[in-house]
């Protein structure tokens, strides 16, 4: 190989020597030696070409004109690299927004105060903080790994995506197998939110959104609001035996002003009289009807989200192969 490289070395202008041979020079190569050198050079060249052909490389390409030392990125390789980078950049920004909203909610409600820090574990804003943090770290690793061609970050990203896909598939299987018990879980959660309606602003917001959008009242019916100490008929306040304004059929007074007292005393009314004032049906039935009506949309969104994650996993695996091959030939 050393003799081959010496033969292929390009002479520089200042190192050019007089190679004219004459009979008086003591360094005249013999004819047999020249033939041996030519045969050895041809053997090395054929060996390199054969090795390149076995490895799937085109020995006529410019990159293989001497020795294959560099792997050139194709247009598809660049597309996959920057596609993964841009996708993860978008989701990184989204994760930061979600994280910021969660932290803003915790700070606004003073959840870090000494008297509230004990119940911060049940704060719904903590879900936004956790989701935003996990999404930011996961997508940032994929973003930096694709841009910097860092195989360690891409491996971490691919493992996290694989775990996320497995968790979603497992959750879908568990939900399908326990679909008869999901109703009882929703009912207990709804009653808990109703009991803490006046004390937790987040639960109050969620309950009001459910009741106003689904046009329902309570978990099973409007009388479930007795679980709240303020709306219980034994309560001393003006809210006793009442329901929130989001249970009202027409909560606006004169069509313009929000009437927060439209549900006062609604629990004392019989169903025939109450149906003109408030919604009689519970929210559990409304949720079930909404799921049945949007069953196809929910399934389509789930399949699309899962498909995007699987596609991201395949792109990451392909980029890992490309980057590792590139490092081998550098």
List keywords for this structure.
1% strand; two-stranded antiparallel ribbon; mainly alpha; 330 residues; elongated; 10 helices; disordered N terminus
Low-confidence sequence ranges: 1-10, 12-16, 18-31, 40-45, 51-57, 62-69
Helix-strand pattern: HHHHHHHEEHHH
Shape, please? Answer: elongated
Class based on secondary structure composition and strand pairing: mainly alpha
How many helical elements? Answer: 10
Question: In this structure, how is the largest beta sheet organized?
Answer: 2 strands, antiparallel
* Distance separating the two termini: 20 Å
Major sheet: order of its strands? 1-2
Kindly estimate the percentage of residues that lie in beta strands according to DSSP: under 5%
- Mean pLDDT comes to 78
Q: Give the fraction of residues assigned to helices.
A: 55-70%
Radius of gyration: 37 Å
Total strands: the figure is: 2
Give a written overview of the molecule.
This protein is an all-alpha fold and 330 residues long. Helix content is 59%, strand content 1%. It has 10 helices and 2 strands; from the N terminus they run αααααααββααα. It has helices spanning 2-8, 31-54, 75-108, 125-148, 151-177, 179-195, 201-214, 271-274, 283-293, 295-328, and strands spanning 252-253, 257-258. The protein has a two-stranded antiparallel sheet. Helix 3 (75-108) packs antiparallel against helix 4 (125-148). It is elongated. The protein starts with a helix and ends with a helix. Residues 1-10, 12-16, 18-31, 40-45, 51-57 and 62-69 have low confidence and may be disordered.
